[in-house]
Amino acid sequence: MSLRAWSLLLVLCGTIFLEGIDVAMLAVAVPTVRADLGLTTGTAAWVMSAYVLGYAGFTLLGGRAADLLGRRRMFLGWLVVFLVFSGLGGFAQEGWTLILARFVTGVAAAFMTPAALSIITTSYEEGPQRNRALLVFAGTAAGGFSLGLVSGGLLTQLGWRWVFFAPVLLAAAILLAALRLVPKEPRPTRAKGGFDLGGALTAAGAMLLLAYGVVRLEHGLDDWTVTAAALAAGLLLAGVFVAVERRAATPLVRLGILRRAPLLRADLGALLFVGSFFGFQFVATLYLQELRGWSSLETALALLVMGCDAVLAPTLTPRLVARFGNARVILGGFVLAVVSYALFLPVGPDWSYAAMFPTLLLTGIAFALAYGPLTIAGTEGVAEEEQGLASGLLTTATQFGSAVGIAAVTAAYGLAGGGLDGFRAALVVPVVMVALGALITATGVRGGRRTEVPEGATEVTA
Asked: Domain named Major facilitator superfamily (MFS) profile: which ranges (predicted)?
């Protein structure tokens, strides 16, 4: 493909790389941040949760805004916001400043990531060209997270503030390149009914309440009434959103898109698969650091093998999709993940790294098989004017999945009393999630058409 087409793809992939590396670096640095600023346990937890709340709460709105207000405009504008507030986090002296910075950074990611994904799906022709681009996108996401674990450990040694400043430098480089490479688009035509303000407000409110309720699940039975109230209020507001959309002349979300079985199956699969992955990674990190006493850098290097998906996603996965089709490759990824997590269930207090290695390797391979094809399935066959919406739905699913996975394993760990028994109880959660995802995915295998990705198909139009 042309140099410009490759350059555009790399810039857009840079966004998901930035998002992945940002989350992973902070996950490693939080204990040091807490100690340096004297934060309470609750405040330190909200440093992580605020980002998830902002991201999950506004992703659906962000995806649709890209369709209605312009993908390039949303991508560039919110990339600037991400850059500014990431820098603000680096200068924070108090917990509330850090929480605010992370919340707004999450909101920025909620708008710019679906915009970047929808630019890919509208700039590359549906079929082999778009599939290859999306698989590269998926591999970049995995690479960002894996590299973030290691770089987070290294930067924390230099000073935790560099965990915030490094994304600023990367975001600035992406912004400069994007100004030149992201194509301009016609100004979106405003529909006769105007902007669906009621839909926007109820959607954002429902997603925020549901995200807050999910994040609170990690507290288990402590203050369970608050958790239940947040989830109930979120579901109620979601019902109001549906009622508003049915009556709106120009709805924010065309509800008919949710009747597309492949899209709905892909979004549910992504929620369960990503949730299981982040839940397992969270438990493994705690096991290595708290029970085994490994340093943050030793833990990051141990988990680095899971980053093999960054290599396999754009190389092996396209060949498998070409031969077996999306649905079968996705199902293979789920089944492999079930085996992978199950192998870790009998984890002991003094397991060698050799005993852990098969699970870590198989987890990376499973991610390479499932994540990219799920991205293809979640955007395939959707009209161009709704690509932002489809991207927003998919990204919302992955963000809620990560929140559910981490909250569920934390709750299971606490309810089991902590210690080794707590880790083993928590590890059951990822197994259950991917097993359920495999069942959902299996319903789409029979009769599912193949998505051809010829071996020599490298020409991409942009």
From this structure: 8-449
* Count of all residues that appear for the chain in the document: 462
What pLDDT was estimated at residue 335?
Answer: 97
Q: 386 vs 14, 65, 121, 375, CA distance in Å?
A: 23, 10, 10, 15
Structure confidence at residue 456 (pLDDT):
38
d(CA 387, CA 397): 15
Determine contact, residues 401/301, Cβ cutoff 8 Å.
Answer: no
pLDDT average, residue stretch 42-47: 77
Q: And the tokens for 85?
A: 């507030």
* Side chain identity at residue 388, one-letter code: G
Helices (H), 188-295: 197-216, 224-247, 261-286
Residues 398 and 372: beta-carbon distance below 8 Å: no
> Is the pLDDT assigned to residue 453 strictly greater than 50?
no
Task: Count H helices and E strands in the chain, helices first.
Answer: 16, 0
Please answer whether residues 272 and 436 qualify as being in contact, where contact means their C-beta atoms are separated by less than 8 angstroms.
yes
Task: Give the rounded distance of the alpha carbon of 398 from its chain centre.
Answer: 5
- State the pTM of this model: 0.85
Q: What is the pLDDT of residues 335-370, one digit of tens each?
A: 999 999 999 999 999 999 999 999 999 999 999 999
Q: DSSP of 243-256, one letter per residue?
A: HHHHH-SS-SS-GG
Reported as a single tens digit per residue, the pLDDT across 4-22 is: 888 999 999 999 899 888 8
Rounded to the nearest integer, the mean pLDDT of the chain is 86
Side chain identity at residue 224, one-letter code: W
- Identify the helix (H) or strand (E) that includes residue 401: helix 387-415
d(CA 400, CA 404): 6
Round to whole Å and give the CA distance between 87 and 32. 18
Q: Which residue has the tokens 């346990």?
A: 41
Examine the pLDDT at 150 and tell me if it is beyond 90. no
